[in-house]
Structures are given as structure tokens and as C-alpha cells.
Amino acid sequence: xxxxxxxxxxxxxxxxxxxxxxxxxxxxxxxxxxxxxxxxxxxxxxxxxxxxxxxxxxxxxxxxxxxxxxxxxxxxxxxxxxxxxxxxxxxxxxxxxxxxxxxxxxxxxxxxxxxxxxxxxxxxxxxxxxxxxxxxxxxxxxxxxxxxxxxxxxxxxxxxxxxxxxxxxxxxxxxxxxxxxxxxxxxxxxxxxxxxxxxxxx
Length: 202
Prior knowledge:
Number of domains: 1
Shape: globular
């Protein structure tokens, strides 16, 4: 199965997020960079309410404490966040831990420390993270070869260009602006799902 992994914040309307969730998202990562911890927790709890009773897993970006307090399904950690092994000690075996890996060594370390999946990119220029360093196909394939856990491609991805990382072997697509800033976000979700289903059948 290929994952549709949405990276979102509450800069868009709550109704838009609700409609996107209803359209079919496997994972939603709440990524808030410029708000207080109190507001981050408030938004995480709201998103937990919105995902309750759905198949969508809620992942919190960076913050293990917010993930715990909001009862999220897991956390995604970057290279400057706390180590995966420490997050696992805090969260226990039942929670999902994702890790950013841009090199083979980072991928190996994340796997050894108990990560459940990796996110690797940036595949294309992205508004969400303007300082993101591009990843080559060669590096991505090397990461996939050395890290035997799911890997979600990230960085400037949308329905039009998502075929490229999937052809390299990506387990799914992590998308932010490609859905949230589309003219019709729900229709964009449907387009990505069709693409993922095509590769899942292959």
C-alpha cells in the first residue's frame, strides 16, 4: 500500500482540512513552526478530534511532548530534534516515529534507533521549506537500499510530479502545498490517490 501523507498547519481553514481528511488521507502531520507551545497543543488536540473515528494517523512534527499530550499516533523528527531512541523511550513501542533522512548514514542510524518510517527529500523546490537541500535519485535509491523500512518522498510534490519518486521505490508521497494550496484540494487528493493506487497495483 502506498501512503498519502499530508503535512499541514492551521493556516488554511478548518473546513478545508476536514474535507481533505474525508477525501482519504493515510497520515496527517501537524507542522507548526512559529506559534507558542500552548497554541501548538491546542491545535494538535483539535486535529486529534478531527481525525478520531477515521483511518488517518495523526503525526506531530518535532515535538514529542505535544504528541504525548494530544494523544497523537506518533511524531516525526528532523536531524536537529531529539534522537529517535530517546523519543522511543518517551513514547513507548505503540507509537509511530518517523525520521528525516537525507543520507544513507542518517537512514541507517534512524533504523537502528527504532524509527518506523523515513521521510527523504527534497525532491522539488518547495514553498514550505525554502532552505531544503535537493536530493538526487541516486542518493534516494541508496537510502532505500540500506534502510528496510517505509520511505515517504517529500519536498514540492504534487499529483503532477509524484510519479518520479514512486518510480524510484517510494512507499508514499508527503505533500503540503501541492494539496493545501491547490484550487480544489479535495480533487487534488483524488488525483494523488489514483496515482498511488496505480503503483500499488503494479
